[in-house]
Amino acid sequence: MSDSQESIQIQVKSPHTIVALFGPQDSHRRLIERRIGVKIGVKNQQVQIQGSARALQLTQRILLTLLKEIEGGELVFLSEVERVIALCEEGLEPSTHLDGAMSVMTYDHKVIKPKTPNQRKYLEAIASHDITFGVGPAGTGKTYLAVAMAVAALKKHEIKRIILTRPAVEAGEKLGFLPGTLVEKINPYLRPLYDALHEMLGAEQAKQALEDQTIEIAPLAFMRGRTLNQAFVILDEAQNTTPEQMKMFLTRLGYSSKAVITGDLTQVDLGPKQRSGLAQSLYILRNIEGIAKIELTAVDVVRHPLVRAIIRAYDRYDQSQNQMKVSGFVQDDSILDESFRGMGGDESMAGESLAGTAMKVERRDFSALGEGHDGEDEDQSN
User: Fold this and answer.
1) What is the pLDDT of residue 180?
2) How many CB atoms lie within 10 A of CB 332?
């Protein structure tokens, strides 16, 4: 602590609120003290904070955000404290300050709402666009929020069915040699979609919806030749589509339908000579009105706090590797994990747009391209 310490107090409604705020064995309090460099105590239902002026301002914002969540009936875990700290440190608005943000309620009355400004943009884009791309690292809620929006649309009778699909890359889309029924063959690849669905609807309601085909979960290969009317269609793990598959999927959309395409450009499982259909489509479709592209970053991660740190560590590693191997455009665009450096929120790559990044992978097909930053601004304003 510096000699120029100041102090402030925050009034708390009850001792129970203080216990929830400080966390088990004061774990929340100790985390904030360590990260921000302040001292936090309590006296007569007042939280007392000592530190520099800047640290006090930041700590006050963090604590008021957490108090609002606790007083609103939410359970606050250490991961949520870490998330609020990260957002406040970066000058972003935590979820409780996102006034008017849309929310979705699950079968057991749990409220699903955006946790970050980017997640809010993502939900608003889905609501206002017929096709939305949600691109970002693991744990940012891309699929979870898309399924929530689909279930909400179904309940409000805006659509008649939900279709969830993803490429079964590990099996090369050739599932015939596996034993069992079609559902048994593809279940291992579609399990994450089932998990999200069960959380929104509950096991029994989800089972009934699947049986009467109100909700359909299928591998991408089975979408060929179909026209999907009055449907909410979600393509998950889209980074593992080929350009041909992506074009096929995008042209399935019928009237009164929505499509959400989610993917992580740093986790492509295609073969070394195969290009990602997601990367190509982000560039090709960058200027088409009515298509939204929302980029989520490490700041938007809502899993264990270590996940955010892991993503950023890999981003820094990928960037350092590229500095050694790349001058200008990527020299080998088949190495996708090197081509898509910086997508996880590294500050030095903050200006890299989705279209600009995807363009580098498409260099061999579009050799005359410029910087490719002109397709994103209108979408991010949604």
Assistant:
1) 64
2) 11
3-class SS letters over 222-287: HHCCCCECCEEEEECCHHHCCHHHHHHHHCCECCCCEEEEEECCCCCCCCCCCCCHHHHHHHHCCC
Question: What does the radius of gyration of the chain's CA atoms come to, in whole angstroms?
Answer: 23
Q: Rounded distance, CA 307 to CA 319, Å? A: 18
111-112 vs 104-105, strand pairing mode: antiparallel
Residue 237 backbone phi and psi in degrees, to 5: 55, 40
CA distance 114 to 98: 8
Per-residue pLDDT reduced to its tens digit, 101-138:
567 777 787 778 787 888 889 999 999 999 999 999 88
Q: How far apart are CA 316 and CA 45, in angstroms?
A: 43
H-helix or E-strand containing 160? none
Provide the pLDDT for residue 220: 87
Residue 207: exposure state from Cβ atoms within 10 A (0-12, 13-18, ≥19): middle
* Best CA proximity match to 340, nearest among 287, 273, 275, 248: 275
